[in-house]
Specification:
Two copies of one chain form a homodimer.
Chain A: E1 8-16, E2 27-35, E3 38-42, H1 44-51, H2 55-71, E4 74-78, H3 81-84, H4 93-105, E5 109-113, H5 130-148, E6 154-159, H6 173-181, H7 183-197, E7 202-207, H8 212-223, E8 230-236, H9 243-255, E9 261-267, H10 293-312, E10 316-321, H11 345-357, E11 361-365, E12 371-377, E13 379-385, E14 388-394, E15 398-403
Parallel strand pairs in A: 1-15, 3-4, 3-10, 4-5, 6-7, 7-8, 8-9, 9-10
Antiparallel strand pairs in A: 1-12, 2-11, 2-13, 13-14
Chain lengths: 406, 406
């Protein structure tokens, strides 16, 4: 049995020449040009690229995003409240919408992250009462989801709810209201605000906690009717690769809801792993965290294995690796490219999967009536022959007539 | 400030003699005869006492229950489905109702434990489909809650839900339906069945898991409108006393729901403690588990401290120690008495709290109009003088006239 059959569809095409006659007994090339599956990565540098005034910096970021775009069709843009709106009313809308549109124009689906979170929260909220904080939280969601509608239609609505009301590293406005309302009431409210602002958006809940606590939270939320489109699972593996056993366990436990699963924040590093005694990854503060040759080989192997397992799972619709380049969060060697943009083995390994193993390219011959059939990975396609080309999408069994354009 | 003020009430009484004249300027004795707070213990031996045909055994159990009754006003009776109904339709109703009535006649409030649990589940259920199991589970609840109404009006409706659907030690009917329906749906159903059968009953959910998972489960259940009367918390401390920090942490996390809290299954042992690597306490199988002199002193100290913290907490309404005597569950030295019924230091320590520190006994003089005032622990009282006696209950501020009977 084909373990990837859920990723593929059968196509039967009938091709016509420009003059309307069937393209009979002709050699054609079928090339997949895009994936339905969401291969994602953090795209924060797209915002930096929009903002920079420095020519060298612009060229550097353009090179980086060029390599980014070769791999990915899906990007996460930052909406951390404390950075997006450092002063009440003064937002980073201009550069963020520019980055989102720039990505969309290149065929990249964009997700905003996150609309509600206790970390990187806006400090100016702290002056308000809990009722006022909640009001501002909901207003913020309505404002941003509405403003980006049509450009960003996918949101991490709320982040890390399991720990949210008991988060005690520092006082913050969102922990306050979550403590007050309880987790389920707060999630209900923020999802309702997002849903009313963009009813067709894909709305995610996202957590690093993959224990039974998150399962039970999801049960409670679904029972309470919260319109969760997909379950977001973080997998920052600075302390070492989960391995197949944990990966399959997480998949099996979270698939029982029948909802799509997004791996939203994946990290596999190419250096020494963080010691196991660290509980909050943010507590690991180092001056430098070098990438090593052995680490890079290991990272490439782990990425290939993990992506292969996730791609084979019918409910997984998206995998996002968090850092595109080394030296971002925690200075970790967590990227597909080094800080100087040079590719690491993991880059080539994932490229091989996305644009090799999992991409359909065929040479076929039409029959006397102009028909051809093939089975291909879901996504966008071009068909071409010496008589011209045409494009089509293959997302379900397809039976279609196409006229080639020259 | 009096840390126990929530356990007390002010009384102002006006006493009259049998002839109707005020009892003026007379010496009276106020004696608390019962507690409003539920001091509980497993009372499984009451069932054994009802069943035994052996005279020596009867005398032994009578001695044991006599010591039990000196301490406790609240007892838990067993309703484990696999034992209560070992063959479908053949129940232990006769001896269980007899035990419940025997306890009630002695002023003991009785709780049934549990109506739904994956452990000690009825094996004959396994032949049925999940729909049929659920139907039988709900029928069983309706049958038993109805049959005992007026005698048992307090139930552990469902036990250990956090682990229930992922319990994998052995296949059983209740795990099957919990996996099928999800935790919240199953809890909803079993509570609804209990509630419709006895709308005034006190209905508990009970768990040994005191982590954030149980909190989130409770959030989800309350949000789903499940009529939970009180939160049940198990505290089997075979692996060592929790200590004040954990105890206060659990109290603080579970008190935010504002519901009454019952410590439903407490164990503190007087022997060597179980090693920390044991995850399921049932895995610790020993031939004997002796009580030691030092262990008995420690157990007494820990019981005094733990009961004192719980009695001081405004939301705690009940504490049940699981085993009255040593050598029951896991053969642990977990009792207030040894296997031969001789009292351990913990027995005297708890007796000192219940019938000493926390019990009101006063000698007062009425004024010229027959009035007297006092503040006492909530519960039942007798007032007596050379002119006779009267009884009254003090559960809230009381202003009452009483005629003494001779």
């Amino acid at each position: 049995m084909d373990q990837l059959s859920h990723r593929k569809a059968d196509a039967r095409l009938r091709l016509f020449k420009v003059d309307g006659t069937p393209l009979s007994e002709a050699c054609v090339t079928i090339d997949q040009t895009g994936h339905r599956f969401l291969f994602g990565c953090g795209a924060f540098d797209a915002v930096a690229l929009m903002k920079t005034q420095d020519e060298a910096q612009r060229a550097f970021l353009q090179e980086r995003m060029g390599k980014w775009l070769r791999l990915f069709n899906y990007g996460t843009l930052p909406f951390y409240w404390g950075r997006y709106e450092p002063e009440e009313g003064k937002t980073a809308y201009a550069e963020t919408i520019a980055a989102a549109k720039w990505l969309r124009d290149k065929g990249v689906q964009v997700k905003g992250h996150p609309l509600c979170w206790h970390t990187v929260c806006a400090p100016w909220l702290m002056q308000y009462s809990n009722e006022e904080i909640l009001q501002r939280q909901l207003d913020r969601i309505r404002r941003d989801v509405t403003a980006y509608k049509g450009v960003i239609d996918m949101w991490d609505v709320i982040n890390e709810v399991v720990i949210m009301p008991v988060f005690d590293k520092y006082d913050n406005a969102v922990t306050r209201i979550c403590k007050d309302l309880g987790r389920i009431r707060l999630v209900k409210e923020v999802f309702a605000a997002a849903k009313e602002s963009n009813p067709d958006a894909v709305l995610l809940i996202n957590d690093f906690n993959t224990s039974v606590s998150y399962e039970i939270l999801l049960e409670g939320l679904l029972e309470a009717g919260v319109p969760i489109s997909a379950i977001g699972i973080q997998s920052h593996q600075h302390q070492g690769y989960w391995g197949l056993e944990k990966l399959n366990d997480v998949l099996s436990r979270f698939s029982r809801f029948g909802l799509p699963i997004h791996f939203t924040e994946n990290t596999l590093i190419s250096g020494e792993i963080m010691p196991p005694h660290i509980v909050d990854l943010n507590d690991w503060q180092v001056d430098s965290w070098p990438s090593t040759p052995e680490g890079e080989e290991r990272q490439a192997r782990e990425i290939s294995e993990m992506y292969s397992v996730l791609f084979a799972h019918p409910l997984v619709e998206a995998i996002t690796t968090w850092d595109f380049n080394d030296g971002c969060w925690l200075k970790a060697p967590s990227g597909f490219v080094h800080e100087d943009n040079s590719e690491k083995p993991a880059y080539y390994a994932l490229d091989q999967l996305i644009h090799g193993t999992w991409e359909t390219h065929e040479k076929l011959v039409t029959d006397s009536e102009g028909y051809l059939s093939f089975t291909g990975f879901k996504g966008d396609y071009a068909v071409s022959s010496e008589f011209g080309t045409a494009v089509f999408a293959l997302n379900e069994p397809l039976n279609r007539e196409l006229r080639l354009n020259t």
